[in-house]
């Protein structure tokens, strides 16, 4: 019984996370495009 409740809770939290991710995806894609246009690359800056 407890295992079934735990599985239901995991499914509920996972579903909520997926909905949130799907809702935020267009904004995240836009942010990535802005960062690319600005020229920020991982490890691309050289310290002076």
From TrEMBL:
<protein>
    <submittedName>
        <fullName>Uncharacterized protein</fullName>
    </submittedName>
</protein>
